[in-house]
Write a structure and sequence with these properties.
The chain has 376 residues and is an alpha/beta fold. Helix content is 20%, strand content 21%. Helix 8 links the parallel strand 18 (309-313) and strand 19. Helix 2 crosses helix 3.
Length: 376
Amino acid sequence: MPLPPGSLLELTPQGLYCPAAAAWIDPWRPVPRALISHAHADHARPGCGEYWAIGSSEGILRRRLGAGIRLLPVEYGQLLRIGDARVSFHSAGHVLGSAQIRLEAGGESWLVSGDYKRCADPSCAPFEPVGADVFITEATFGLPIYRWRDGAAVAAEILAWWQGAPEQTSILFCYAFGKAQRVLAELAALGVGQPGQPGAEGGEILLHGAVQALMEPYRQAGVVLPPARPVSELPRGESLAGRLVIAPPAAQGSPWMRRFKQPQTAFVSGWMAVRGARRRRGTERGFVLSDHADWPGLLQSVRQSGARQVYVTHGNSDGLARYLREVEAISAEPLEGDFNAQRGDERLDGEEPAAQPAATLSKDGEGARASVTGAS
């Protein structure tokens, strides 16, 4: 469904545009003024005249877009006057510095979620419920089969997997920005890196260069992480038995892997909830941990927004919109535009999303159930 003419936001070839602020939200192409929800590469593109973003994301943005970009850092909850619009950024709980963007002008308010999650995460600020007349929400994991466990429980499984193979190198593949740091922060909360514990000095967790390059902004933000060092700092030929290595998906199958002799491998992603995803990734183990909202989180966020109209982008936008209309009695439509084609924080970090299972939605005691077919 297109946005109604005269709305506070409109769809342009560059993406979502707010005429009142003369600004685009997460534009797809270079524009004079960009409001950035977070620093993943499908939301923050190079070449814009100016970038407005949460200050804690500055280190990541400058590394990815260039040290010389014109960046106007803002704080969560700060009320800004941009053109004729009032604009504020509110925590999305997705990654460091991620934000929902709320715009208000002409007597109406819109909230653009960006990517978000509702689960506790020691590596970033928690999601903040925000009200608006119109809510644009993502639906990356917009099926009832996606229901996340606590991150601490998943981290405990990762720790047990690592410690269960003292004669092997354990290589954990996860996205270089966001997921890698969350895994490390969750492990630190379990004591990893403390004296006498796994990952302590002399046995630090090892990092691929792509992960190492993005660690400093997290440490500067005060996120507690275990000691870690780049694999490249270790002398060639040194035994890596019993060490944990964090690497981006793109490293899998690359010449970089030749250094490790018969490692055990695992992949961390929400897509690991889909049957067959681990096999397609070619790893021995899959851990289900996502930085996007699960099905209950999506529904909770829509309800708490109090929006009279909801537009859904990315993922299962048709299915979530239909459920909101037919079960929740909320006016909702998938938002037309090139959103799925522009999507790519997972792909740009080396992962293709898993094939989505087909789902039939019905109301029951828990709200919805999926009948899953065709998921290999």
